[in-house]
Structures are given as C-alpha cells and as structure tokens.
Design goal:
The complex is a heterotrimer of chains A (330), B (328) and C (319). With 330 residues, chain A is mostly helical. Helix content of chain A is 75%, strand content 2%. Chain A is built from 14 helices and four strands. In chain A, strands 1-4 form a two-stranded antiparallel ribbon. A two-stranded antiparallel ribbon of chain A has the order 2-3. In chain A, helix 3 runs parallel beside helix 8 (179-197) and helix 8 crosses helix 9. Residues 1-6 and 8-19 of chain A have low confidence and may be disordered. Chain B has 328 residues and is mainly α. Chain B is built from 13 helices and two strands. Chain B has a two-stranded antiparallel sheet with strand order 1-2. In chain B, helix 8 packs parallel to helix 9 and helix 11 (254-264) crosses helix 12 (276-296). Chain B is globular. Chain C has 319 residues and is α/β, with parallel strands linked by helices. Chain C folds into two domains: 20-125 and 260-286, Rossmann fold; 128-257, 3-Layer(aba) Sandwich (Rossmann fold). Chain C contains ten helices and twelve strands. Chain C has helices spanning 2-16, 36-52, 67-80, 96-104, 128-142, 159-172, 190-203, 215-227, 242-249, 261-276; strands spanning 25-29, 55-59, 84-87, 109-112, 122-126, 147-153, 178-185, 209-212, 234-236, 256-257, 284-287, 291-292. The longest helix of chain C is centred in the N-terminal third of the chain and has 17 residues, at 36-52. At the A-B interface, helix 1, helix 6, helix 12 and helix 14 of A face helix 1, helix 6, helix 11 and helix 13 of B.
Chain lengths: 330, 328, 319
C-alpha cells in the first residue's frame, strides 16, 4: 500500500467528519481551560500558590510523573498497556545506584538505568508482540519479577549519595529552570513529533484504533509494539535517573506508588484505553492537573487522606467531560 | 465501514472459538506441578493442618475473584474491589465499635459496597465509559474515604463477637473456608443455572443477540459491577474476622491478584468465555505458591519473582496449548 | 519451559535452605524489606542466632506492611515448627489471634520494636515516647525556646510513630513560645518527606525547626531545604541509622536518637534462647535510647558487618 492510501484509510478509521476541530485538539484545549480555571481558583484561595518557588515545585513534581507516563502513553495509544513502569523505574534506579557506587562513574550510571529500562521494555515487547500474550497480565507479571529483582539486589538497604554531575538531571538548573522540566518539554516535543508526524507514529495510532484492520493494511504491528514497549521502558529508566537525582537515594520501594498516578495522568490527559487516540501533550497536562490538585490540597491543609479521593474525582470528572464533549458532536 | 467489518469478524471468531475447549489448562497445570513439588520439598505441606491453612489464606481472595469472573465475562474489569473491601471494612469496624451487631454492620458494609458497585455499573453500562477508567476512579474515591473515615489508623477494639466468629469451626474447617465454599456454590448456581447468568455470559460473547431478544443489556452489564461491590462488602466481614481490625489499606492490590487468578483459571478478557471453577483453581494456585514458598523459607524478594514468573509461565503454557489446538 | 521452571525452583530451594545448626531454627518476622531499619533488626537477629547455635528463617510480606500476608506467614511458619519466633507486628492490635496460635503450638515468641497486644513471652523495645521527648528537648534548647516548627510523622497508626509524636508534642508544652505550625505524615519514606517539606516551605516561609519521626524522613526534608537554599533550619529525628549518624556528624542534622534495630534483634533472640532452656526472662525490656549529637556521633553508625551484640548481661539484666 502506498503512503497516501494508508493515510486516507486512517482518516476513515477516525471517523473524520471534516469537523472544524480535530477531536484531539478539542480535548487538549478543554484541558488547558480547566487547568487555567483551576490555577485561578487555587490562587484566589491561597496566595502562595502562584509564587515562583511553588510553581517550580509543581512543575518539577509533574515532570517526574510525566516521564514515567510518557512511554506508557504510546503503549496505550497502540492498544496495549504497561503496568510495569513503576517497577522498571525501581529496578533501574537501584542497579544504577549500585553501579555508581561501585565505579564512581555518573555516565555509567545513566547508561545502566537506560539499559535496564530498554531491556525490560524489550522483554515486555517480546512477550506481548512475539509470543502474543495478553499485555495486562504480562506486564503485571513483569511488575512482580522486576520488583523482586530490585528487592534482591538491594538486600534491604537503600543506596544513598550520588555525585553532583549525576544529580544534575534530577535537581540541577539550566538557565534558571529545573532540569526535569526541560526534560519533560523535550520528551513531550520529541514524542509528539514522532507520534503525529512520522510514519511509525501514525501506524501506532492505527494499530490502536483497529488492530485487525491495521494488520490487513500491512502495518508491521509486532515491530511497532516492541518499539513502544521499549520506549516505555526507556522513559521509566530516564525517570529513574531524575528521581535519583532528586532524592539522592535508591530504595526498592520507590517506584510502587507511582504506577497508578501515572496511569491516571495518561487517562486524565485524554488518551483512551481502547487505543487509537491520545497525545503526549495530553499526558503532560494530565500530570500537571493531578499534581496541582494535590499541591492545592497541601496548601489548603486538606488532610492527606483525601488525596486518593481527589485523584479519583479528577479521573472520573475528566472522563465524564470527554464523554459529554463527544456526545454533543454526534 | 471498516469498523463494521472488524466487528463482524470478531463475532464470527467468537462462534468458532466457542467450539474449542475453553482454556482451562493454566491453573490446573500449576497445581499439578507445584503440589507434588512442595509435597516433597516443603516439610508439612501436605499435612491436613497446612491444607486447611491454604484454604483459609485463599478464602478472601476467592470472594473477590468470584464476582470478578462475572465482570470479566462481560469483557470488563473491576479495579476498585480491593479499595471497596477496605472501605467496607472500615465502615463495618466503626459500626462494631459503636455497638451494632455483626449482621447489621455487615449489611451496612454491603450497602456501601453496593452503592459504589451501582456507580461503577452505571458509568460502564449506561454512560459507556471504559471499566478500567471508571473503576480506577472509584478506587481512588473509596481509598480516600477509607483513609479519612479511619483517620489513617486501623479501627480496632471490635469486641469479642468477632473473635468468636473467626474462631468458629465446623467439621474442622474454619468459618471463612465454609463461607468461601458457600460463595462458590451461590455464584455457580447464579452463573450456570439462572437466566441472569446466561445473560451475563451472553453480554460478553454475543451482546447483539441479547439486545435483539429484548433483554436490557445495560441492566445485566451494570448488575455485575453492583454484585462485585456488594460481595466486596461481605468479604470485608471476612477480612475483619481475619485481621481483627478495619484497615483502610489492607486490600490494596487485591483486585490485581483476583484478576490474575480469574485469567489464570481460564476466563479470558476478550471472548466472554469462562470457567468459574477455574477461578477457584487460579486462587488456589496463588495460595499454594505462597504457602509453599513460606514453608521452604524462601526470601521475600525471590517470592516476588516466583509469583511474577508463575503468571507469565502460565500465560505461555496457555498460548502454546491454544496454538496447538488451533492448528490441530 | 517446565524443566526450566523446575530447575529454578530447585535452585531457589537449595539456596534458601539454611545450614543445619545444632539448636534449631528461629523465625524472624519484620514488616517489610524496604525500610533499612528492619534490615538492621534482621542482621542483629542473625548474628545473635549464629552465636548461639541457631539458624534463622526470615519472613517479610511481599507487599510492604501488608498485615494479611503477615498473618499467613505466621501460620505457615508454625507448620515449620521453629524453636522460637521473634516478631514485629504490622498491626499492633490485630495480631492477638496469631500470637495465640503460636503459643498454642508451644512455640515461644518475643515481640520486638513495636509493642503489640498479644500473649508474648517477652517484649524488647525502646521507649518511643521518651525518645521523642528527648530529641525535642535538644531542638527546643537549640532554638532558645522559641520559633515555628513542623512535625513530620511516620505512618499514622504505627506505635513508634504515634508514641514519638506524642512524646515530642508533650515536651513542647513546656516551651510555650514554640509554635507547631504543621503535623504531616510521610510514611517513613524519604521521597514523600521531601515533597511534604517542599509543600510546607511554600505554606510557611519561616520554619525554624523540624522534628521528624525517622532519620530517613529527616534526610528527605533536609534534601528539600538544601535544594531550596534554605539554611538555618534545625532538624532532629530518631533512629540513628547509618545515614542519619553521618548527617549528624556533618552538621546537617542536629540530633538523632539511637533506636538500634540491631540490638533489639540480638536481645530478642537471646531471650528466646533463654526461654527454650527454661531460664527466667524479663517480662519487658526497655532499652535506653542514647542521644546522637555532633559530639557523640562517632560512637554510632558502624556498618552492620562490624557490629556486635550486647548480651543481656551487658545490658544489666540478671540471669
């Protein structure tokens, strides 16, 4: 099939009615609006919210969440899912920490974290795409295996203290902006370019929209699935470096609490679990939205017990809003 | 147009697969391998005392996995079961501390679970929202409520009735095991012997036919989530009996274990094919693995790896088996 | 595939079978394998057990602090018929039925670290309340009796955290010019404490002192403050972990309190040994927490491999 035929087939998938605004763009704009309203609201309630320092904190916390979720967004768009991202972060961070302490080399540490992320992603990809096992349970099994691996490697004791150059990615500043935020922007841009402007990106979207038809159209589904899982693992590995830089310590429990919030960020950002639609910008906005809600709760001294409640409400709210937006069109 | 083709293809695929045996291998294979292995290497594994322990340790997971089977049969999943169990547990515990009787407190807990279940069911069936998202949202809400109600601590001081309840044995079997067996019986009858059960199986496999025959698919679809919620409320009673307190975070992650048990037992996400007894085998497979590893004294980290490896190994076995029967 | 599975299992079994020791086996239960504090306790128990001729088997829930798992592990351990058990409960109230089962099986069981409601043979703990009080006094004196402070708790509902916080707050009543502007929990996690501190610094631009229920969390809070360029806030905490002691020696942490999991592990095992030999044991042993300050820091924080157990005799307990 020629390129143009694939693209027009793609348009038919998406049910493109030629409406003035692409549905994904509408959803992004809606989220920007919500974000702006939320910020305004919180700023009215608490004067510390809009301070440079607080906003920097929020952006930094959101960047970590975004990084973990970035690769997984691609996996979900492709019609699969990755439940192992938190565990990949944990294992990458722990082994990288050990390597740095053993060799003193920051470069080797970063390379280790990325290598482990990529390998774990590769394993996921091979199991899902090559052996055609169901993604939910496969990545769930990998979650256990990688967590166990990290626990075994660490032997119950965290590793603390990393050299300044290594910590740069997590707690450094470039041009006055915290580095994690710059990394978030870079990855969001790069990922969006790949997703929306390259052949592979379009193929990923098609695979998610309708796997059977995509295979019939000649798309290398297996290769692409492996690629997105590798991307997910690599992002988790990068997030591990940033987290290590921030906290200056590696322990075998660090990634666990990050899994569900990362999925929430992806979903709040407008990516559909059915696959076939979604953006990295959306995930970034989702991560921001969730982080701001939690930050606001802290500033307004709402008990931390209510934080999971708030996350749940934001999630359901985002879904209802999307359902409402889309219903009006049809 | 292509979507239309895709959908018809799926339906046709369904009918073909209904002729093949459902994937029941997974959990059975696990048990067939592990039981003799542990019998030899884990001292005391096969003793009646230990076997009862395994049943006891698996009982609460079974209570969550049984309704999960129904939900998965409708091609959904309920991620909020664990959080609901914890929330209902906190509610139950608070009521017991306030002096209400066990039956009354349990009914109240089930009502809370039912409420959330209805919310889940409504959003999934009537609003068409994806179950993953809805139940993830309810997970957060239930978790938050549980933490807030319990003020971060476990609710304890439940009184002697609960202790008596949990210590009750009949024919040497602890009350929780009896409850689990009874629950299986009830779900079996509901799923395979009632019209409702037939509708549940149909929703996953062939919803169109159901709709055409005039049944409210939405009602059936939503009802399974309501059942899941109410059962979580009842399971909360068992959890309280076991841990003697209402912990707001006790069952975190249990829904994932239940999903794994259901799928390992042969019920699949995609096809609306399922086997209820397979869920029992799946739950037992997990229970046997953990128990055996504990008896041997395997390090925690290796236990984690073993559980993950088990899941993936079973998936591989099932894939090989279905490939073989597909080409046969 | 199946042969691979079987070989892995066999490997795992042979790797975890302890060398047979003369006196039998002691089962050690900790809350998780994530918090380094429990590693100290496990090592202490191992060292003491080896010295007395026992082997140990370690149990910790795969999901950290999961009480249901701990109950199951106790039940399974009973089937192994160990000579004794050393136990820190995930839940200090709900463990009673499990402990009863252990006693019914004729196995002695000693509670260490967190006091639990059960029919234990003995308890080996520190006075968390006094610990909180003592470090708070050091902080209050350093602040000259006035200022704004925040308290970072551990896991709400855990005995150590609640008692330490209570000790701190009671002591502060004697310093009316010190104001507690916030009390927040960070679940003993370093990253969480870091983020909590960041948020608190936004809310309260002036924080003179921090009381953290554990060194791990204090270090998270200190990270947050140092990255923000905040200096001058005094931090005290408890536990006396290796990291914590280093921070005290370096002047980043004002003071900590020695909460030696290692020693508790040692002593608990020694008490089991006495029980199995029919000797008398103290019903409850409260170890004294020494304060770790810059002057005294070099006495603490030795790497685990180099530590030795103080015997009951060293601790002044009559035999």
């Amino acid at each position: 099939m020629t390129e143009t035929t694939q693209t027009s087939a793609f348009r038919t998938f998406r049910g493109d009615t030629g409406a003035p605004l692409d549905p994904e763009l509408r959803s992004i704009i809606a989220r920007f609006v919500v974000l702006a309203v939320l910020c305004a609201g919180v700023a009215l309630l608490n004067e510390n919210f809009l301070s440079v320092a607080n906003f920097t904190n929020v952006l930094r916390q959101a960047s970590l969440l975004f990084l973990i979720a970035a690769g997984a967004t691609l996996v979900i768009i492709a019609g699969a899912i990755d439940l192992s991202v938190g565990a990949i972060l944990t294992l990458s961070a722990c082994v990288a920490a050990g390597v740095i302490h053993a060799t003193g080399s920051s470069g080797l540490g970063i390379a280790t974290a990325l290598a482990i992320g990529v390998s774990a992603g590769l394993a996921n990809g091979i199991l899902v795409a090559g052996l055609r096992l169901p993604p939910f349970l496969v990545t769930y099994g990998m979650l256990w295996i990688l967590s166990g691996g990290a626990l075994y490697y660490m032997g119950g004791i965290p590793i603390t203290g990393f050299p300044r150059e290594f910590r740069f990615l997590g707690s450094g500043f470039l041009l006055g902006i915290p580095v994690p935020i710059l990394i978030m922007i870079a990855i969001a841009l790069a990922g969006s370019v790949v997703l929306h402007m390259t052949m592979v990106g379009q193929q990923i979207v098609m695979m998610g929209a309708n796997r059977a038809a995509a295979t019939l159209a000649g798309i290398p589904v297996r290769r692409n699935l492996i690629c997105v899982y590798v991307a997910s693992g690599a992002c988790a590995g990068l997030a591990a470096v940033v987290a290590l830089g921030r906290v200056n310590s590696a322990d075998p429990g660090m990634g666990d609490p990050l899994l569900l919030p990362s999925i929430a960020a992806i979903l709040v950002g407008g990516t559909s679990l059915f696959g076939g639609t979604g953006t990295l910008l959306g995930t970034a906005l989702g991560a921001l939205l969730l982080t701001i809600v939690l930050n606001a709760m802290n500033l307004l001294t709402i008990g931390s017990a209510w934080q999971p409640f708030a996350t749940g409400i934001v999630l359901v709210g985002a879904m209802l809003a999307d359902a409402f937006l889309n219903r009006r069109r049809s | 147009m292509i979507a239309e083709v895709a959908r018809t293809t799926r339906l046709r695929g369904n009918r073909a697969r209904n002729l093949l045996p459902s994937k029941t291998l997974g959990a059975s294979v696990v048990l067939i391998i592990l039981v003799p292995l542990f019998g030899v290497f884990a001292g005391g594994f096969l003793s009646p005392h230990n076997l009862v322990n395994i049943a006891l340790q698996s009982s609460i997971l079974l209570l969550i996995a049984l309704p999960m089977t129904l939900v998965i049969l409708t091609e959904g999943l309920d991620l909020s079961s664990g959080a609901l169990l914890s929330l209902c547990g906190v509610v139950l515990a608070l009521l017991l501390v306030a002096g209400y009787s066990i039956p009354l407190a349990t009914l109240a807990a089930m009502a809370v679970g039912l409420l959330f279940g209805i919310l889940n069911g409504f959003c999934v069936a009537n609003l068409g929202m994806p179950p993953f998202v809805v139940t993830l949202g309810t997970l957060g809400m239930a978790q938050g409520l549980a933490l807030a109600l319990a003020d971060g601590n476990a609710v304890s001081g439940l009184g002697p009735e609960i202790e008596a309840f949990s210590a009750f044995r009949f024919f040497g079997l602890p009350v929780l095991v009896l409850i689990a067996i009874a629950a299986y019986g009830i779900f079996h009858v509901v799923l395979y012997r009632t019209t409702f059960g037939r509708y549940v199986i149909a929703v996953g496999g062939n919803a169109e036919a159901l709709r055409l025959s005039g049944v409210s698919v939405r009602l059936v679809h939503g009802a399974v989530y309501a059942i899941s919620g109410a059962t979580a409320g009842f399971a909360a009673l068992c959890m309280i009996a076991r841990t003697n307190a209402g912990h707001p975070t006790i069952a975190l992650g249990m829904e994932f274990d239940a999903i794994a048990a259901v799928v390992l037992g042969g019920t699949s996400f995609e096809r609306g094919n399922g086997w209820l007894f397979g869920t029992v085998l799946g739950v037992l497979a997990i229970g046997v693995l953990r128990n055996g590893l504990n008896l041997i004294g395997v390090d925690t980290s290796l236990q984690l790896v073993a559980i993950g490896a088990l899941v993936i190994a079973v998936l591989l076995v099932e894939r090989l088996a279905s490939d073989r029967s597909a080409s046969a | 595939m199946k042969t691979a599975l079987v070989s892995v299992i066999l490997l795992v079994i042979s790797a975890s079978c302890a060398m047979a020791q003369d006196n039998g086996e002691i089962a050690v239960f900790t809350k998780n394998k994530v918090d380094p504090f429990f590693e100290e306790a496990r090592v202490g128990a191992d060292v003491a057990a080896k010295g007395l001729g026992y082997s140990t088997v370690q149990y910790a829930p795969t999901r950290p602090n999961n009480f249901q798992e701990q109950i199951a592990q106790v039940e399974d351990a009973i089937t192994r018929k160990p000579k004794g058990m050393v136990f820190v409960p995930v839940d200090t109230k709900g463990l009673k039925p499990s402990v009863d089962k252990v006693r019914e099986a004729g196995i002695p069981i000693v509670n260490f670290i967190d006091t639990g409601d059960g029919n234990f043979n003995s308890y080996v703990i520190y006075d968390d309340h006094r610990m909180g009080a003592d470090v708070t006094r050091i902080l209050a004196q350093k602040l000259g009796g006035k200022g704004k402070i925040v308290i970072i708790e551990g896991i709400k509902g855990s005995a150590t955290s609640d008692n330490r916080t209570a000790g701190a707050q009671e002591t502060l009543k004697s310093y009316p010019q010190i104001q507690v502007v916030a009390v927040q929990a960070a679940n003993y996690q370093r990253l969480q404490a870091l983020q909590v501190m960041e948020n608190l610094m936004q809310q309260f631009p002036e924080i003179d002192g921090v009381i953290a229920a554990s060194d791990n969390m204090a270090l998270g809070a200190i990270e947050a403050m140092e990255s923000a360029g905040h200096s001058g806030t005094q931090v005290v905490s408890m536990d006396g972990t290796i990291d914590g002691v280093q921070a005290v020696a370096a002047g980043r942490l004002l003071a900590s309190a020695e909460f030696s999991g290692f020693q508790m592990g040692c002593t608990a095992v020694e008490i089991i040994d006495r029980v199995t030999r029919g000797e008398a044991v103290p019903e409850r042993l409260e170890l004294k927490a020494e304060m770790i300050t810059k002057e005294t820091a070099d006495k603490f924080g030795q790497p685990l491999e180099k530590r030795t157990c103080k015997s009951l005799k060293d601790l002044g307990v009559a035999s």
